[in-house]
Amino acid sequence: MWRTLIVLSLPPAFAAGSGRGLWAKVSASCVEFWDQLRKAELHIDALSIEDGIGISASSYRHIHKFLTTVPFDDAVFCVEAAISAATSSDAVLMSHVAESIAKLPNCFREMTFKSEAETRCAQRWYKVAIHVLKVNGLQDAAESMWRRAKSIKGKDGKALIGWPSPSQSPTVWVSGLSTRPYWNCSSWPFIQGLEAAAPVILKEIERKDSEFLTAYPYLQTAGVWEDLFLYRGHQWNTTLCQSMPSTCRLLLPELPTRPGVPYATVYNEEVVIFRSKRGASVGAHCGSSNGVINLHLTLKGGRGTSVSVDGLQVDLRDGEAICFQDSYFHSVHHGLDGEEERISLVVRVMHPDMDAKLLGSRTDSVPDLQAWDRSASLLKEVERLREEYRKLAAAVGGQDSSCSV
Fold first, then answer.
1. Distance in angstroms (rounded) separating the CA atoms of residues 103 and 95
2. How far apart are CA 102 and CA 97, in angstroms?
3. 23 by DSSP, 3-state: which?
4. CA 110 to chain CA centroid, nearest Å
5. Where are the beta strands (DSSP E) in 311-355?
6. How would you classify residue 318: left for phi > 0, otherwise alpha for psi between -120 and 50, otherwise beta?
7. Count of CB atoms situated within 10 Å of the CB of 95
8. Model's pTM, two decimal places?
9. Where along the chain do its domains lie?
């Protein structure tokens, strides 16, 4: 059995608690926890599903003490912050810590009473453990951790986590959905309208220059990567839509894309604008669920920027959309030889195969599917569309009256 020397090499600024990103916000106890592991220069056994060996007994005791004496939410933030700053030299250790969270009794117990269409604590933390290994290029270790997750079985002997491979390990995995890295965008006809309107959409976005925020700070990134949400948590940003009327007018009738089918997670459908600067890169990551397809329309700056999904790279082109499944590990690279700025409109839509029958008894968004009323949901959507058309009619009527003599 080979052994790997792990040295936790967080930058000095992080250890001082004044660095960039999430690490700058961690508590003193968090810094002390990781510092003790670093100073110990612990020998960590290689990840192996065959022998079941993880970390040393002393390391386990240190990690377990921290996780059980610090409030759970604080411990979670501490680990997420450290992982966001991880390098390949500390990725194995951090994956063990993530697995230790998954094995906490209250976390692991969720595998026994939550449906697969819900976020289950242990599954989420095995996802994190796999993520930190894959993003740091430790593919064999990631596969071993995936096998450890797949070894969790129910009373019937079946694996409780449905991930087909380490390349697809989202927080929520719904069985029965077709899967492939890239999809034909013609499955969503409204994309053609967005492509045709790309210059108008871009003009509206460029007026919102100051409203972008750093995108997903817990992911490993380099350079500038920012986002601006139009639709999130199943709610439209009405203030933003007022200043981006053409964009919202194109999108409002299209979401939800599958009315009458309940959402599995709050992230099932979203509209987000991404902006990156030359030299930016977004490390490989997978989304929240295999029930989401990303419709990615490049508005400008496509030259020199590429997206890689499950290792398959596609170069972006201005005014053209690509569509890919969010559950696959994917990354973005905005090359130094590319345009100064890249702006993309991303519409996250529900998987076309999604059906209430696949979701079991409840989801993150719907606590009781037996009580969920499909007819009422459809009626609510009809009323929403009617209200939007009333607003549109009123706006058109106002324009007509202002032009009358």
1. 12
2. 9
3. helix
4. 21
5. 312-315, 321-325, 330-334, 341-350
6. beta
7. 32
8. 0.86
9. 28-151, 185-354
* Interval 368-403: pLDDT, tens: 998 888 888 888 888 888 887 787 667 655 655 554
pLDDT number for residue 55: 65
Does position 290 have pLDDT exceeding 90, yes or no? yes
CB burial string 278-298: b at 16+ within 10 A, e below: bbbbbbbbbbbbbbbbbbbbb
- Token pair 């929240």 is at which residue? 288
Quote the mean pLDDT of the chain: 86
Q: What is the C-alpha separation between 282 and 259, in angstroms, rounded?
A: 32
How many Å apart are CA 299 and CA 328, to the nearest integer?
23
Instruction: Tell me how crowded residue 213 is: count the other CB atoms within 10 A of its CB.
Output: 9
Handedness of CA 69, 70, 76, 79 (dihedral sign): negative
How far from the centroid of its chain's Cα atoms is residue 313's Cα? 19
- Do 322 and 316 form a contact (C-beta atoms < 8 A)? yes
Q: Note the CATH number of domain 185-354.
A: 2.60.120.330
Under a CB-based contact definition with an 8 Å cutoff, are residues 177 and 358 in contact? yes
pLDDT band at 200 (very low <50, low <70, confident <90, very high): very high
Q: What is the mean pLDDT of residues 31-58?
A: 61
Provide the 10 A C-beta neighbour count for residue 12: 8
